[in-house]
Amino acid sequence: MSTDKTSGDGRRVVVALGGNAILQPGQVGTFEEQLFNVDGAMRRIAALVEDGWHVVLTHGNGPQVGNLLIQNAVAAKTVAPMPMDVCGAMSQGQIGYMAAQTLANHLRKRRLDVPVVTLVTQVAVDPKDKAFARPSKPVGPFYSEAEARKMMLEDGLTMREDAGRGWRRVVPSPEPREIVELEVEPQHAPEFDQGLSGPREFFQSGTFIAGTIDAPGQIEQGCDCGRTVEIVVHGGVELIGCLLDH
Question: 2-128+174-244: what fold?
């Protein structure tokens, strides 16, 4: 877990919880294991809130998305597989649910009346980012060379050999530009209409938000609208800290 203090009125902190802290090396990845890990982290977050910090939480989800992609591959003949950006959103909901539940419990134990809100996010990226020409981030399960070449030919995926362990899909990892949901107007999100103009001000108000940012990027901004792309975006801590500081 790492923290990055932001400036401005009050003491605000952005806390990053890595995906490998939620599903730790050597663990199978059961719900119980991940809930236990998240609960321990949220106990420490509650202590920060008790000390007067206004907290925004961002998290990684690499292992969780990887497991969902493996489930896709194993069950593809039985259940329609979901694209990677949808798996990213699914994992945001999963982790946000665990974080919100356990954090609220720890806050109640401390008799702290602080609401907990989770936000599933989309990250806008530049369609001209050079990363799109050089996919480099491995995701999902390992395949044989024959399977990989078939996927490249039939599905148009980019596959690469991974350190002698097999072949994996690789996707672009462009720089994040903005978090789409921070600009939502309150008339489109009544839950934020508490005398605040939107999620950005809600973050800055001192109310704890469990925000999910450091996930596979969800959107590519075009001229007038966006379209989803299967990418992995890093740098959520720096981006959210910068945005909340303006």
Answer: Carbamate kinase (3.40.1160)
Burial track 118-140 (b if 16+ CB lie within 10 A, e otherwise): bbbbbbbbeeebebbeebebbbb
pLDDT, tens digit (0-9, with 9 covering 90-100), for 119-142: 888 888 888 999 999 999 998 889
pTM over 0.70, yes/no: yes
Determine the Cα–Cα distance for residues 116 and 222; give it in Å rounded to an integer.
33
Cα dist from 164 to 92, 142, 158, whole Å: 31, 10, 17
158-166 long-range Cβ contacts below 8 angstroms, 24+ apart: 162/138, 166/142
Please, what is the average pLDDT of the chain? 80
**Domain assignments of the chain as residue spans, ordered by start:** 2-128+174-244, 135-171
